[in-house]
Amino acid sequence: MGITTKHLLSKATFCMITSKRMNSYYTGKHASRYNRTWRTFLQKTLLATLSTIDVASLQQRASTRERPLRILDAACGTGLLLEQFTHLLPHAELYGIDESQAMLARATQLLRDRPHVHLVQASLGGGETAGLPFALATFDLITCTNTWHYLKDPAATLAGLGRLLVSRGQVVIEDYVLRGFPFPWKAFEWVIKYYDPQHIRLYTLSEAQTLCRDVGFQVVLTKSFKIDLFCQGWVLGTLPG
């Protein structure tokens, strides 16, 4: 029998964790239109994320023990990736965290008939568990998509996420970078920050790989993919060292 949400989460779970700087871009009408506005972007980035997960390893692990797999989507947004997991790994216990209550409301609506999905309002950060209200060694897989450019200290966040993994668990990270042909990228990134104030900086795939290795992760798979004229996506699969 699976462990209940109450056993998995610290007491902080039962009082919502709210960021001091809630980004208006992910509230109100922006949240309600998010999936429609970014449909192509989300389709490409989430497909790349799913293709990087070692699903066979997860299925093999699930077949050899009594408790179900536990998967965390860190910064889950409107729940699109979690919804994919309900089909890909239908018996897994799924957890999603996001800073935006409005985005979580959209995720709740999408996943309302899925009893094994648990959503929590929380912000990624540093510390022992990356600022999240979960016990150590809880998850078999952690995903984090389209979020790395918001993190103040991604190395600290990654280290904390690693502590939430069971032995030989997986972390899959996906984000984007501006494409490499000549263009006034500094001005373009200024526009991004104007409309999305929490944006801090973009990381290349090479920079992300170095960061992972610096905190002791083994990078087992990397991919780059075209998103559109301006953006190049990247994704990497990692195991804790």
Task: Give a short summary of the structure.
The chain is an alpha/beta fold. Helix content is 36%, strand content 24%.
What does the model show?
By secondary structure, this protein is an alpha/beta fold. The protein has one domain: Vaccinia Virus protein VP39 (Rossmann fold, 3-Layer(aba) Sandwich), CATH 3.40.50.150. It has nine helices and seven strands. A seven-stranded mixed β-sheet has the order 3-2-1-4-5-7-6, sandwiched between helices. It starts with a helix and ends with a strand. The N terminus is likely disordered.
- Write the CATH architecture name: 3-Layer(aba) Sandwich
Structural class: alpha/beta
- Enumerate how many helices there are, as a single number: 9
User: Helix amount, in percent?
Assistant: 25-40%
> What's the number of structural domains?
1
Distance between termini? Answer: 30 Å
Give the topology string: H per helix, E per strand. Answer: HHHHEHEHEEHEHHEE
Number of strands: 7
Give the C-alpha Rg: 17 Å
Low-confidence stretches: 1-22
CATH topology: Rossmann fold
Q: Strand portion, in percent?
A: 15-25%
Quick one: overall form?
Answer: globular
Strand order, main sheet: write it out: 3-2-1-4-5-7-6
At the fourth level of CATH, the homologous superfamily is Vaccinia Virus protein VP39
Mind telling me the CATH class? Answer: Alpha Beta
Mean pLDDT: 86
Largest sheet: 7 strands, mixed
Describe this protein with a few key phrases.
241 residues, Rossmann fold, 24% strand
Tell me the layout of helices and strands:
Blueprint: H1 5-8, H2 28-37, H3 39-52, H4 55-63, E1 70-74, H5 80-88, E2 93-98, H6 101-110, E3 117-121, E4 139-145, H7 154-163, E5 165-178, H8 185-195, H9 205-214, E6 217-226, E7 231-240
